[in-house]
Amino acid sequence: MDFDRVLEKCGNFGRFQFVILILYGYTNILSSLHYFSQTLITFTPEHWCSHNDLDGLSAEALRSIYSNVTHPSCTLLEGVVNGTAVEAADGETCENWIFERENGYESLTTELQWVCDKSHLAAVGQSFFFVGSVVGTITFGYLSDRIGRLPAMLMAALAGASGDFMTSFVYTLPWFAFSRFVSGLSTDTMYYLMYILVFEYLSPKRRTFGLNIILAFFYCFGLVTSPWAAIWIGNWRHYLWLASLPALGVLAYPLLICESAQWLLTKKRYDRAVQCLKWVAKFNGRQVEDSVFDEFVKQHREKVNEQRKLTTHEDTFMGMFRTPRLRRFTFTLLLKSVIITLSYDVINRNMEGLGTSPFKLFSYTSLNYLPAGCTILLLQNIIGRKGMACGALLVGGIITTVTGFLIAFLDPTENAVLLAIMIGLGRYGATVAYDAEIQYAAEIIPTSVRGAAVSNIHVVGLASSSLAFYVIYLARFYKPLPSIFISCLMFFGAALCLSLPETLHKKLPDNLVEGERFALNESWLYFPCFHKRRESLTKNDDNKSET
After folding, report:
1. What values do phi and psi take at 260, rounded to 5?
2. Most buried of the four, 112, 324, 497, 499, by CB within 10 Å?
3. C-alpha dihedral sign at 18, 392, 341, 238
4. CA pair distance 149, 142, nearest whole angstrom
5. Between the CA of residue 499 and those of 150, 153, 333, 445, what are the distances in Å?
């Protein structure tokens, strides 16, 4: 009797799963507020070097006066003569600026005036955020396989919220960098640890629906509303309070859900695992005899003893590199994570200079999360995990290529709507690829190392996020270069997915021994939808032959 059969008796899609999915949704709201707060607090509006002759003038008047100046944002004026700017002598620099604030929103860059020769300061803070992401993902991933998924997730959420709250009180670069480092500790970690908990307690048939629809709705809600919340609050410091304080709600999680029973089994904590399963059964109103749990534990012990005879190594993440097939799967998942995460970050953060308010563009194009989640729901159980991953990257690459050339050859102010639509489609492709990737990776990786392996795969992807700003910088040489670069990565990633095994309708591996044998004789071009069609055609031919 395996875990899925016992969970079915306890209830694998009942009240307990409803509660854990709601908490997963709440975690997604926290994650969206946290991850993209980095973008919302550092939006830099249009600005001009201040001068007494410019006081009280409208943005249109300022643009007209500065029309003959090459760099109006950082060029100090001697004065204004007949409506034309007269530049100051060389060597003089701006000390104050006039900002065209979005509905009066005070961002970090406008309050601290981190523009022109100080524009790099915000980027330095962002880089420390990603350094924190790497450290946090490794640390909490390790803890998730040592002390459990639930306590590690709670610690990660509170660490990130503490960093955001600390950031709201800083005025200098050192403290800003430190607080962003602390904030980055929880980036994605609280999300994927909660994801693993839901993944392990949910019916295999319901995973695609539960995980992706909840993700699509709640993450979308957080992204769509956060820019408007920032504008309504009007100040980046107060917005960070809004983004951080709700994280205290995770302290209630242990009162409603329990630790991963599968993780407890891998740690040979059988009594605690049975307690968790009994809690699930009670929550779902199921009556399960103690003999069922006794038989399950007995068979699991026998299975562990048999596997212990086959290997002398304890299952660890590094153990995935000992055998050839698992080693290939692991390297492929690591590289795919780099491609998808870098593509996702570049596409989602490149919101300025496209003819539309970055707040509105970010909010409206975030609606793509709903159709992205529905796409995964409708197609993933038909074309398979590999087909979903491969197709999403291929379509995303095509959309990104087209968008890049439109940005290069069209005037953003005159084609703002078209560019917004293409940005939205690009985010749609990147979102489908990103959301499908975590479920695919979690299914390929054996249960015994799932927490550490998923965290390490994520940390490699997050490390690549620090390159996003350099990729965006390529536009200074040729506008579509970032899009061309990202689309090439996505095409390569689509081809890379062919080397991974299909996981749809298969018993997932519990340990490294099973992981090495998983989908052993499967072809690289195996897709469930085509395979079923070939089987159907073969049966029809056989029936005709018999007739």
Report:
1. -65, 120
2. 497
3. negative
4. 10
5. 33, 32, 10, 15
DSSP string, 258-326: ---HHHHHHTT-HHHHHHHHHHHHHHTT----HHHHHHHHHHHHHHHHHHHHH-SSPP-SGGGGSSHHH
Retrieve residue 409's tokens: 């050859």
Integer Cα distance of 451 and 254 in angstroms: 19
Low-confidence ranges of the chain (pLDDT < 50): 534-547
3-state helix, strand, coil in the chain (%, to 5): 75, 5, 25
User: In one letter, which amino acid is 274?
Assistant: V
| DSSP 8-state class, residue 49 | E
Taken in order 290, 295, 297, 298, is the CA torsion positive or negative? positive
Q: To 10 degrees, the CA torsion angle through 235, 238, 243, 246?
A: -150
Q: What is the DSSP string of 200-260?
A: HHS-TTTHHHHHHHHHHHHHHHHHHHHHHHHHHH-BHHHHHHHHHGGGGGGGGHHHH----
- Compute and round to an integer the Cα radius of gyration of the chain: 26
Strand partners, 87: 77
Q: What is the pTM of this model?
A: 0.76
Determine the pLDDT at residue 241.
Answer: 93
* Tally of CB atoms within 10 A around 381: 18
Q: Which tens digits make up the pLDDT trace of 496-528?
A: 888 888 888 788 787 788 888 887 777 777 777
Would you tell me the crossing angle of helices 120-144 and 450-465 to the nearest 10 degrees?
A: 170
Query: Exposed/middle/buried for 97, CB within 10 Å: 0-12, 13-18, 19+?
Result: middle
